[in-house]
Design a protein that fits this description.
This protein is 41% helix and 24% strand. It has a 5-stranded antiparallel β-sheet with strand order 2-7-6-4-3, with helices on both faces. Strands 1-5 form a two-stranded parallel sheet. Strand 6 and strand 7 form a beta hairpin. Helix 3 packs across helix 5 and helix 4 packs across helix 5.
């Protein structure tokens, strides 16, 4: 079934053929300095918290690719984006390259801001999942189990966010409200049903 794009979607290795095609295309385009290719480029440098981060963004209209693998599956696709992030921390330097599919026109400044917002939201969700469910300590590794449990944790997080009756305990101010709700649900079947009912509404 075709997937309708909403602004920006990270292209990950779970689409190996498409990911490889996009990566190889950008590698060749960079090697030739995008000669003869319509491309939008943006550069941003941020400093703070003992780190310096440089982001380079290249946005290319879909038409420049001459067709993508199973392109018909991506409704509204307008541009392909590559983001290169280099972070200088006090003790190390990290370098990452990510690719994105977007329903927005190929404007590197606009897409760079959209990706940064998307990335920030994902980081916040990951942090919340780790605090609430100790996700980073999970030992689940087999086949599809990590992805399945990640989905279940996000569903549980949504359910806990929807439940508004439990007030944060003053006796344990260090514990987050979501974590308190999770603990209460694990020990009280009645409260667990309250959480599930909120999720099902």
């Amino acid at each position: 079934m075709p997937k309708k794009l909403t602004r920006v979607l990270t292209l990950k290795s779970n689409h190996p053929t498409l990911h490889s095609q996009v990566k190889d295309w950008f590698d060749a385009a960079l090697a030739n300095n995008f000669e003869g290719i319509k491309v939008s480029k943006a550069r941003r440098v941020e400093k703070g918290h003992h780190r310096r981060e440089k982001r380079l963004v290249w946005a290319v209209p879909l038409g420049e690719f001459g067709g993508l693998y199973k392109q018909e599956q991506w409704l509204g696709l307008q541009s392909i984006v590559m983001v290169e992030r280099t972070r200088h921390l006090w003790n190390k330097v990290t370098h990452e390259v990510h690719f994105y599919l977007s329903s927005l026109p190929a404007d590197a400044h606009v897409l760079g801001n959209a990706i940064r917002t998307h990335w920030g939201i994902e980081n916040q969700v990951h942090w919340t999942l780790d605090v609430t469910f100790n996700e980073d300590k999970s030992r689940i590794r087999s086949i599809h189990a990590p992805r399945n449990f990640a989905l279940l944790r996000r569903m549980a997080l949504n359910a806990l966010n929807l439940e508004k009756t439990l007030k944060r305990s003053r006796r344990d101010p260090r514990s987050g409200a979501l974590r308190q709700k999770s603990r209460r649900a694990s020990m009280n079947n009645k409260y667990m049903m309250t959480v599930l009912q909120c999720f099902c509404q």
